[in-house]
């Protein structure tokens, strides 16, 4: 009987257990931090990406700021309601940039053909969503903070002067943006890059009915129920109440928060359903057009 010179384990030997992260383990802040760090390095290493984050909010500020300056010089009403256009524009940019920050961070993974690798790694889908939320906040801060500060000396409008109301406006707008971004991520997983344009265009569909620059009463009667079904509508109505009437409408903010909880829950359910569908169809590794 010959010996095995290589001491190779036989086929009946017990399998070797490898140590390492278990995908079934709980939610990991380390994995979330790794995803955030990846996107931070991506931003930091590309000045065009950093510049783009500031460019569009700055263009919006200058355009609407000068429009408001002209109106204030020719209308007594807008003289009393100073800041409504700039305030609406800045809040709208918070909504838009939060959604696009989430969606673009996810698109970076698609463009790099890295989504399949991430979903086969110990990173859980819930951790991926949380990391994209935080990345969207980082991108939003880079883009919006300089613009809000420039608005103070240039147009005499201090968004930070809204105080606690601004924090509640911000929370509701960001929750809406994340809900939309989560659904877009799910659609991209299922449909591939053919749905890429949704990341740029979908938020603009709600501008007319979210009443960003005018009250809900301006809309035709049949559109007003649609407007009141959207959380941002309550935020922009609350912003006008704060700037024109100097009152904080807690009832509006509570309703916006309730609708956002419903929207976030529906978005997360939709994301996991679309992810499961993408896995069944085998589209995770084929994210082309």
Number of E strands = 0
The number of helical segments is 12
Shape: globular
Number of domain units: 1
Average pLDDT reading? 80
What's the SSE pattern? Answer: HHHHHHHHHHHH
Explain what you see.
- With 289 residues, this protein is mostly helical.
- The chain has one domain.
- It is built from twelve helices and no strands.
- Helix 11 packs antiparallel against helix 12.
- The longest helix has 32 residues.
- The N terminus is likely disordered.
For this entry, give a set of tags.
mainly alpha; 70% helix
Write the layout of secondary structure elements.
Blueprint: H1 29-44, H2 47-74, H3 76-80, H4 84-111, H5 115-120, H6 125-155, H7 164-191, H8 198-201, H9 207-210, H10 224-228, H11 231-244, H12 250-281
In short:
Helix 4 (84-111) runs antiparallel to helix 6 (125-155) and helix 4 runs antiparallel to helix 11.
